[in-house]
Structures are given as C-alpha cells and as structure tokens.
Amino acid sequence: MKNDPEAAIMAMVRRFYALSLDDDLLGPMFRAEIDDFEEHYGIVADFWSHALLGTDRYKRGTPYVHHTRLKVEEAHFDRWMAAFGQAVEEELPPELAEPAMQRARHMTESFKMGLLPLPEPKARPLGAPA
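Structure tokens predicted for Group III truncated hemoglobin:
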C-alpha cells in the first residue's frame, strides 16, 4: 500500500482514527462530533491528499474553521500528535511521512493559538524591567 500514495493516505487516516477512538480523551470527543465516520475519513483523506500530493480534492477551505467549536485542552493536542505520529509512521512512505509530520506540527501550533486560552501573564515585581 505504501507504493500507492492515495491508498497510503487513506490507510493513515483510518489508522489515526482507530488509535484516536481507542483513546479515553479523544475517542469521546470524536464520537460526539462525527456523525458518519466513513464520510469523515474521505474528507480527511482529501485534505491530506491535497496537502501532501497537491491534489485538488479538498474544497472545504481551511480545516481550522471546522474545529473551532471543539472544547479542547493542551492534552488533546498531545494525544492527537501521538496518534497521528504513530499512524504516519505505520502507513506512509518516508517521502510523505516527514512532510505530513511537518504539516501536522504546524497545524497543531496554529490550532493551539486559536483554540486554547491565552496563558495568564506572569506578575513582575514593582519596578522590574519589562
């Protein structure tokens, strides 16, 4: 399957969700948000096909907007990256694996900035330089 990039991407998507649905933090969130997993796998595979192969199948804009209603914490991102990294390692050929991980790390940082509350500013002693 690693010889067929599209099949490898779909295998990676399915493996990611298999791992995530078994996760006690991610599983309940995904089950509450996703009505049709088969349809969802296709959408996510289209995104990764676009991101990794330059195809024109993903036509839903930025994936960020589809995640804004989720109630997430830092731990969700850690678990997401762990499951994604495992799925990528198991299913994608090396020439797709590294770009996939780079994109996932970038997306994770961007999503964190948009979805997590800002940290509390640290108090400085009076008169301390800024």
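The first helix runs from residue 5 to 22.
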